[in-house]
Amino acid sequence: MINNQILASKLLETGAVRIQPDNPFTWASGLRSPIYCDNRVLLSHPEIRTYVIDLMAKVVKDFEFFDTIAGVATAGIPAGVLLADRLKLPFAYVRSKPKEHGRQNLIEGHIREHAKVLVIEDLISTGMSSLQAVEAVRKIPSEVVGVLAIFQYDLAKAKQAFKEAICPYITLTNFPTVLKVAMDKKLIEPHHMELLSQWSHDPIAWSEQYLSSQTSMSQ
Amino acid sequence: MINNQILASKLLETGAVRIQPDNPFTWASGLRSPIYCDNRVLLSHPEIRTYVIDLMAKVVKDFEFFDTIAGVATAGIPAGVLLADRLKLPFAYVRSKPKEHGRQNLIEGHIREHAKVLVIEDLISTGMSSLQAVEAVRKIPSEVVGVLAIFQYDLAKAKQAFKEAICPYITLTNFPTVLKVAMDKKLIEPHHMELLSQWSHDPIAWSEQYLSSQTSMSQ
Questions:
Q1: Whose CB has fewer CB within 10 Å in chain A, the N or C terminal residue?
Q2: CA angle B87, B88, B92 (to 5 degrees)
Q3: Is the per-residue pLDDT at A44 higher than 60?
Q4: What is the pLDDT of residue A192?
Q5: Which helix (H) or strand (E) holds B152?
Q6: Phi and psi for A213 in degrees, rounded to 5?
Q7: Tell me: the pLDDT tens digits for B162-195?
Q8: DSSP letters of A165-194?
Q9: B219: exposed, middle or buried (Cβ count in 10 Å: 0-12, 13-18, 19+)
Q10: Does residue B74 have a cis bond before it (omega within 30 degrees)?
Q11: ipTM of predicted complex
Q12: Residues in A 77-116 with any Cβ partner in B closer than 8 A
């Protein structure tokens, strides 16, 4: 795990990561969360975009040898293809489910059999979408040397899922680092830290507790 | 319109474009077609991928001034972000329909109001998906200086659609150029040329005629 504070700071500055303890976001899963991450806004900032790829190009040395890059569709495609361009490696992308029409590919582009593949992801939350992509690549059959993502929430569930899948993963920065930077910048109040720590410890319980508190408030 | 024969040749060599007059493909629309294009396979060939972006970086001079690149999701994202990287410009991508969950963005990343946007597409068939993206960008409101795509089938329907949308478009290569190269390489027989020309003239009529010929053959 890399704890890049410069990137954490840029995520906050651009609004790629937003923290709203008092006004939680609703995630795709329906869960309420005090934090939301949309790294795609980084794409609109050429210097930050380049900084992310610079970091990735350094970090890849921590993985075993690979000869192919795969991006997790859709959000992992831009960073994936930019890194592939930097490293002059073949690129393909992996859908979480096949298209409804056409050739029904899970993998778009071509990954040869027995390739050694680094999977690029935008964000690791529970790790599910990354590990679906890992599974698709392994079925080719090719070898996955690991997953590299821009940001992670640092959830125990993800750690467990990657461990079970026997898949190394690295993120450029993460939730605790963003929190530290947000505190330093006084973007969050000290009393929020306990709340955010509770969320990070068990996001589902946090969400349920938040929702039930809202219900009782409205009664 | 650019008629790049080197790229046409690479499309055929890599199997990005396939021509099977005697065994037509079924497109997403259900139409039968003697030609199929999947430019994503180019992503697995670093030199060809770079060649495509080199060509794009030259061709962009034929558009009016722009300050932002938008890729049409999903296939237009890789070329779009690579071109944005080359030109050091902001990048975003445009979905043809909003995601089912989350922030319901048609545009992922950020395009500022009154930006001057070049839209990058993988393939122009009828022009519909490109022009949906153009419309989404115009609604920001931002200006679209045009659409740049890797390949087009050169269909009259696309020409008409872009004309009606008052939107310039350029492709790096196209169906007639690929046909010429395929003939030179003896990948297709001379008697296929008439069939392919008929298809290009009216793909829907060609598909209907093909399907009815199959029905009568099976009777």
A1: C
A2: 95
A3: yes
A4: 92
A5: strand B143-152
A6: -70, -35
A7: 999 999 999 999 999 999 999 999 999 999 999 9
A8: TT--EEEEEEHHHHHHHHHHTTSS-HHHHH
A9: exposed
A10: yes
A11: 0.93
A12: 77-78, 81-82, 84-85, 88-93, 101-103, 108-111
Q: How far is the C-alpha of B159 from the C-alpha of B32, rounded, in Å?
A: 21
Q: Compute how many other C-beta atoms are within 10 angstroms of the C-beta atom of residue B126.
A: 16
Nearest to B84 by CA among B111, B46, B123, B47: B111
Type of residue found at A175: F
Q: Which two tokens stand for residue A176?
A: 């605790």
Global pTM?
A: 0.94
**Distance set, CA B88 to CA A6, A95, B66, B78, B91 (Å):** 21, 28, 12, 15, 9
B109, A44: Cβ pair inside 8 Å?
yes
Looking at the predicted structure, is the pLDDT value of residue A215 above 90? no
Buried b (16+ CB within 10 A) or exposed e, A79-107: bbbbbbbbbebbbbbbbeeeeeeeeebbb
Residue B199 CB coordination number (10 Å): 25
Gap between the Cα atoms of B143 and B67, Å rounded:
10
- How many residues in total does chain A contain? 219
Give me the long-range contacts of B100-109 (CB less than 8 A, separation at least 24).
B101/A28, B102/A27, B102/A28, B103/A38, B106/B136, B107/B70, B107/B136, B107/B137, B107/B140, B108/A38, B108/A40, B108/A74, B108/A75, B108/B73, B109/A40, B109/A41, B109/A42, B109/A43, B109/A44
Domain architecture of chain B: domains with CATH: 5-204 (3.40.50.2020)
Q: Which residues of A touch B77 (CB under 8 A)?
A: 74, 77-78, 81
> Which residues of chain B neighbour A109 with C-beta distances below 8 Å?
40-44
Using one digit for the tens of pLDDT, what is the confidence trace for A57-103?
999 999 999 999 999 999 999 999 999 999 999 999 998 776 555 45
Q: Whose structure tokens read 């009828």? A: B126
Q: Kindly give the pairing relationship between strand B143-152 and strand B169-174.
A: parallel
Cβ <8 Å between A74 and B75:
no
B109–A73 CB contact, under 8 Å = no
